[in-house]
Amino acid sequence: MGKEEYLIPRKFNILYADPPWKYERNKVQGAAENHYSTMSIEQLCALDVEKITDENCTLFLWSTFPFLPEALRLIKAWGFTYKTTAFVWLKQNRKNKDWFFGLGFWTRGNAEICLLATKGKPQRKSAKVSQLIISPIDKHSKKPDIVREKIVELMGDLPRIELFARQTTPGWEVFGNEVKSSVTLSEKEENYAVCNNSKGFIPHKE
């Protein structure tokens, strides 16, 4: 990526990201690549996300359980501190209310998690937002739309952007190769060192 100017010269108080994780296992990676381009943890860490974040900012980051170590490395590389799990998505089938189960790695997978990390001292606006989301699966890897509403309820109507977005949403700026991006993100070499030196809080075992 070249060193380009941002289309919108502003800072955001809310970042919402669903990274296109690059899996090492061929079957899982092949399935993902059939639907969208993926990125390695090094490529994700290198994005200069810090340049578009306000001094007080909250990051909402989707991860699968096997990718928790990488998600924690990414949080640190982007200049945030991990706090908690914001949301747990329990997946239902599209056509009925039965639970959806993927192949998983050790046990059959159902849930996905959205981590919450902060920079500075952002303030919560509502104490009534539930962590649990029960919703049917949609097209490959698409997350429930209600998550955006929950984020705004939790943090307030602040400047916000969705990274790796697949659609545009009123009130949100977007970045991604499936939408007309509001910003461009260049690479920040220093992020490579942070990413490579940070192993997260959970040992990665295949």
TrEMBL record:
<dbReference type="GO" id="GO:0008168">
    <property type="term" value="F:methyltransferase activity"/>
</dbReference>
<dbReference type="InterPro" id="IPR029063">
    <property type="entry name" value="SAM-dependent_MTases_sf"/>
</dbReference>
<dbReference type="InterPro" id="IPR007757">
    <property type="entry name" value="MT-A70-like"/>
</dbReference>
<comment type="similarity">
    <text>Belongs to the MT-A70-like family.</text>
</comment>
<keyword id="KW-0489">Methyltransferase</keyword>
<protein>
    <submittedName>
        <fullName>MT-A70</fullName>
    </submittedName>
</protein>
<dbReference type="Pfam" id="PF05063">
    <property type="entry name" value="MT-A70"/>
</dbReference>
<keyword id="KW-0808">Transferase</keyword>
<dbReference type="GO" id="GO:0032259">
    <property type="term" value="P:methylation"/>
</dbReference>
<keyword id="KW-0949">S-adenosyl-L-methionine</keyword>
